[in-house]
Here is the input.
Amino acid sequence: MKKLLTKLYILAFMALVVYFGVIIWNLTFAHIIHEYHERNAANTEHTEESLAQKKKDDKSFEQVILKSEKRTKHYLGYRVLEQQYIKGHFHHIGYDVGPDRHSYCSSCHGDMPHDSVTKDLRAFLNMHAFFIGCQTCHARPEGEMATGVYQWYSRETGEIIPSPVNDAPPGTYKAKIIPFIMENGSLVRIDTQAKIDFVEQYRLNEKELTEGQKSKSKSIIHNVVSKKPVICEECHSSENPLLPLADLGYPKRRVDSITSTEVVGMIKNYTKFYMPKMLNPGVSHPVDPVEPLLPVEPAPSVPEDENLPPVDRAEG
Amino acid sequence: MLLNLFPGPRWSFRALLVALCLLPGWLSAADMGNCLLCHKYPGLSRIDQSGNMKLMFVNEEIFNKSVHSKVKCEGCHADITKIPHEPAKPVDCLAVCHIIEPTSEQKFSHKSVKTFMDESVHSKVDKEGKLKKYNEDMPTCKDCHDNPLFRPLAFVKKVRPGIADDAMGRCRVCHEKEDFIFRFYNHITTRLHKSRSPLNVAEACGKCHDDKEMVKRHGLTIMAGSSYQETFHGKAANLLDESIPDCLDCHVVKGKSVHQMYGNDDPRSSTHPNNRGAICNSVDCHPNASVQFANYQVHPVFDKEKSPFVYWFTSFFYVLTGGTLLPLMAILFLDLLRRLFPNASFKRRK
Here is the structure.
């Protein structure tokens, strides 16, 4: 036993020696080699114009996605404010939501999926998607499947958790609302493990699938999606809101706010509500408008101008 | 001016007024239009066609500790007059806003910054008024500035914005309004020192001055931010030393605005060869230093061609350190290997 411990001790020491060796290499000779390569590259490569061109053309995944996600720290003396860095963003964020690692919808559509809808709504819908599961609005369980039961699940683990609302600032919950349905006589959440596994398998095998298999898979994955999604007034209404806000842990003050005249009044100013284009392949313009339940005033017409600088366009 | 939230029925407008009355004092001051009704949600965002993230969230708690906390939303986002509003236009930082500048009693504006900037090395135009080559690289307001946060004095206080209760008590002798006392105290104490830590200043400059392509396009010889980090000053800044000089301490003429920065060859520049000596031997830094002291290589780069002296000197120490410690590590490793296998041998046993 003593011999074994001695051997393990020696092995650990050897690993430590190698570790320090790597550090020393990186702090010394690696610098010299790096400088040599950098200097050679600079001498052979670039003119001013080629550099300017290179910058414009560099749209690689690494450049656009991996390197674009930076973080920044503000040293305020009494506090270090760390947050995501968004180029040209003026207001401080000071809050991290983190991606939804459980939703099988988000695995393809992302955490900010509402870009095909009207300009007035897209940011609002993305805002709701931060704490409302996709199926809550895009699925309408009918008949025996409908239960009216909703619960919160953790964005990180996917597990059902107690209501995170309490006194948390609105929309800052690291959880989402998911509907429950009746399936084979038992109450289950709508995003069953079988559905998650199906999507995972589809994504793993997507390259090998034939066109027919792909279409069939997509059809099965989206068969839960209703053509008429839940619209704003169905929840933002003091009379029988779709979501049982009190059961979801919203205190009365918050329920009153969600169904208040400010929110409901604002929603009345929206006119149209569109299904995402991806559910209507081949159709280039939004279709199947769902008229709001209440009569409304027309929304202002807005000229599309996507050429404005990033983040300056702080619209809602 | 109240936003025309509900162009329709009057009852909803009245409801809004009631809601505004219920808001806390300092919040209602900036958020008269109840913009936070929507913009308090962190998820209020989208991805535009260029793939850039647009985040419309305003963190109320942090905003209230910023120098703009008294400016109404529509003071900057002047084009938004109703809800639902159209895609907002870029904010014009030079616009006249609703704050009254107390010394002149005029409406406040950052207009003077443009005058400074137009003459500075960061101007988009040259002396003849023509657009410079690669003028799109030149910084605009938000390339350097985000919403400045209060950084009051008293760095020993680690949990709140440096509020000295004793000082606040002295304010209360004459002033009654807590909101005024809080903001005025923060405004003054924040301005008594750097509005950002030296490390944050170096990082802000480094956004452009450490961009390899941009540095080459503009014919600059060094990566200013990263080379600063290599110096004694930069290393102290990395340790969050607040008293260490950052980029602005050397590159801005004392008493002038940071927006009045000139090229090294401009006689007005603090870093012009004729003026350099005054930087280091200022009374705050190295008061007895000779003029020559400022002529050392401030931005050392480990590059054989650009800084041969620094290159060979540093290389010598790299080789000395690596050449000593790496063989030592190798010997240690072999020694441990022998202890692990005491009887191992390459020779065949007879």
Notes: The CA atoms of residues 302 and 313 of chain B lie 10 Å apart. The first strand of chain B starts at residue 45 and ends at 47.
